Automatic annotation (TrEMBL):
The keyword Kinase applies. One of its GO terms (molecular function) is RNA polymerase II CTD heptapeptide repeat kinase activity. This is Protein kinase domain-containing protein. Belongs to the protein kinase superfamily. CMGC Ser/Thr protein kinase family. CDC2/CDKX subfamily. It comes from Hymenolepis diminuta (Rat tapeworm).
Amino acid sequence: MILNSVKDNTAVEGINFNICSPCSFEKIAKLGGGAYGNVYKILLPDGKTYAALKEIKPRREEMFGFSTSTVRELFTLAKLEHENIIKLVNVCIEGRQNGVCSMILPTLMFVMELCKGNLREVLRGSIIVTEAQRRTIMSQCLSGLAYIMHIIHRDLKPDNLLISYDGVLKIGDLGLARFKVTEAKNVHYTPFIGTVNYGSPEILLGSTDYDESSDMWSVGCIMAELYTSTVLFPGSTIVEVFQSMCLICGSITNGTIAGIETNKNFCLVENLPQYRISTLSAHLKTHISSILACSLIERILRYNKTQRLTAEQALNDLYFTLNQAKDENLSELLQERFNFDVFQLNRHEFNPFAFTKVFR
């Protein structure tokens, strides 16, 4: 896919790219940024619809100017449409000469639905999260995961669980996501993916043989943090996280994770103090009053990935089914960032404004 040679409104593998100029929209405020680029709140040409613009900086060391994770996120989002997955509305490329991208590496821009904030902000905020709101957060997170069961997110954490202005949770930041290969044998994925505090034992061990059950481990960590407001397995390094993990869940051995000795990071746990008995149940019950919540977290946080609940199984747990109340509106958990109205983003609203629809 050669992005720097596409023309206006050219379809590449089912996705239409619109080469646009900065004047196509108005940047209102910078929402964040990092090594990849910046995220802005923008006002679209209709003068009333707001969106988020993820501006990807070109990288000369990459073959086509964009990293593998950027291209992967683009094509992953373009294939997904679910109320609990962040919506990619348009893709733009800035920089052209006579209708064709110039030789200067172009800037790739994702136009996405605008969200009010993320779960990390909720956990750090002063608003008390109710039991019904916790159940809604976990239900919507699991619903999104159940929908993308053929995809491994690989970086689930509170920062990547967004909350829309309509009060709905959205799974975002799929830059590290990979489609699960089900037909081929001996498929190996990249090791060391994600954030250490939410990484599954097999990923932290450096295994390349993992699946969507790794995301479920992250869900268990997030759910525990949602109740306690503290990271379940603290630490700034893999070794520190393993120490926290073993202290709560017991030692990681060949009996708990088959073939552990073959993993490249086995040396990191080999010499740790031995904790034979898991104290996870006692730890959770000390900090969480809901017995059903504790039970669900326990059955997700299993060292053996084959014993972890799937997203669909978790959704059918008594934690959710015993009280089938209507989902709570989550927007009240976040303070308003800006003082103007935000309109619901809709793909079809962009057609009159020279924005190209992203096709599935």
